[in-house]
Target: Aminotransferase class I/classII large domain-containing protein
Amino acid sequence: STTADRVAELESEGAYAVMAAASKVEQETGKKVARLEIGQPTFPTPQHIVQAGVRAIESGQTKYSSPSGVQSLKEAVAEHTTKTRGIKTLPEEVVIGPGAKPGLFLTTLALVNAGDEVMYPDPGFPTYKAMTLTAGAIPVPVPLTRDGRTFEMATFEKLISPKTKLVVLNSPGNPTGGVMPQNDLERIAELAKEYDFWVITDEIYSRLLYDIPCAPSIYSIPGMKERTILVDGFSKTYCMTGWRLGWAVMPQQLTNKVELLLTHSVGCTATFTQGAGVAALTGPEDDLLEMIEDYRSRRELVVQGLNSIPGVTCPVPAGAFYAFFDVSSFGLTSREISRKLLREGLVAVLPGTDFGANGEGFLRLSYASPRDQIEQGLERILSTLKTL
Ligand code: PLP
Model:
């Protein structure tokens, strides 16, 4: 028997394949690989959040919650969104899920018909293509500018068609760390109204910014709240990747449909995890601020280190914890270089093409990894690229 067409073209996230390959190299050689492939903070979850989770379990928050989330967490998210995005947001417009991913995936399923077109950044987070294919829709990757900050806007405008139903934005972005400028967001907002498409803005890295206090959001542009889904979460900001907790803010009529999809798929998000989420959003931010300072100094280390390697160019990423650097001058594909770096140099980074065809010529390094691995990784990249 066969599997369904809807899963025929699905691919994994490249990070998982490189993680497995790096572990294999470690086993085979008995040597440690500098692990710079995965976008996962190595800091522990802050103690006050852990304690809130433990208290939630001990006090019996271990039963089903409403499929769209616990009321106190929806209230905390609504207040946080109102404060950080400057647009009044109500708890009824919030849906809680096990991570930001369900906020992306299930809203796409709720909005898009087979044959509709979905536009998303190239290079971009692989889930955007996967959710588009699962919905039976047509992926329309939009090239980013070479510095990775924003869409090539002229191409974006050309790619809009009567079938365009949804545009996905990701700022600060994975894999480039780019932050989209306000004027491009305003133009996309105008086009969204003219061509009547929805916008998902994936702002999972909204707190990880190094040069400006907050990134412009399309959700904040007047008239956009009605057609925007704002996705954000806890994984990156509060080092909670394994807790599985995130949220999406959307027009109330859409929450009803997404709640049905949650009801029949995951049921609800773990209730005690949601208790920890309230503590994360309402508690002290000292750990978070310290972590941002740490990432800022690692960013400096990485950008300087990479740019000092002959043949490598690395733009300064304004946010997230990735450096997306240009290695096209070596005349090999991104995949060939990343393989060499892993096998010969014992350093794991991702080929840019894991994020779309337009990532060719680039590699992604995650500086969420510990500083000693970053330092070792940079030395190994330098010595391996020298041999090419
Ligand atoms: N969106 C982007 C751009 C990401 O990079 C990630 C994680 O790598 C996610 C969403 C998923 O986050 P979560 O762990 O909350 O599902």
Observations:
- The CA atoms of residues 186 and 221 lie 7 Å apart.
- The chain has two domains: 5-44+286-386, 63-282.
- The two ends are 47 Å apart (CA to CA).
- Residues 39, 99-101, 125, 170, 174, 202, 204, 233, 235, 241, 246 surround pyridoxal-5'-phosphate (CB under 6 Å).
